[in-house]
Amino acid sequence: MYLNPSLKSILAAVALSFGLAACDGQGGKSASQPQQAAGGDTLATIRANDKIRIGVFGDKPPFGYVDANGQNQGFDVEIAKEMATDLLGSPDKVEFVLTEAANRVEYLKSGKVDLILANFTQTPERSEVVDFASPYMKVALGVVSPEKAKITDVAQLKDKTLLVNKGTTADAFFSKNHPEVKLLKYDQNTETFDALKDGRGVALAHDNALLWAWAKENPGFEVAIGNIGPAENIAPAVRKGDKALLDWVNQEVAELKKNGKLKAAYEKTLKPVYGDKVKPEELLAE
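-> structure tokens emitted (286 positions)
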């Protein structure tokens, strides 16, 4: 039976799991370098080594996090397990590598992971350096702030400090479009949200899907701006030019949508958080 812990407990577990992290220093399994197949074919390498290395978040519930037992959990993690099962026959044949927003591209380029499934928003700039597969989610940016001092319009942020994660679409959007806003940037989600609680910024910008979930579990805060900028897609990503793996991932995403397993992952990990406030079709890509 699936038990949905409160996100408060999850965040506490994240901090504990990082403290108990093993040899890779990130809280996940150590990312070993597999033997490369002839011609640098990543898909062939994965099959030869009987393992796929997938980059996921360790501190972004309900999408990717490490629970109190040191196990990877979340929506992206469920998708990763389905991919490993369909490709290699078992969900245990995925090696989760914890990543942060700012190093997702580098982990792909350096070969530390085969695939990124870390709530990765597809943008033109990122598409120049990695190859995105078909999307599985759609999101927009939002802004969360204290209920006693709600930010309801971007104009209220002028000359104020806004909290963001380095390398996220929120970072890029405000850096490009709102230079009048002072950005205070952090590497990890836990750091950024703690900064909001401590009053180091007047508000925090991130994907609206994450903010809705966080605000529900943190009374006193509200997502008073639910949508900023255009809607964007979240998709798996592979190294630039990695055509064989990209083609397989595209087929897999299409199959997960068709056979209902993508929606099942939503029901297991996201619906307990959002309840009836958010409908699956509002977040799941067609």
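The chain has twelve helices and 13 strands.
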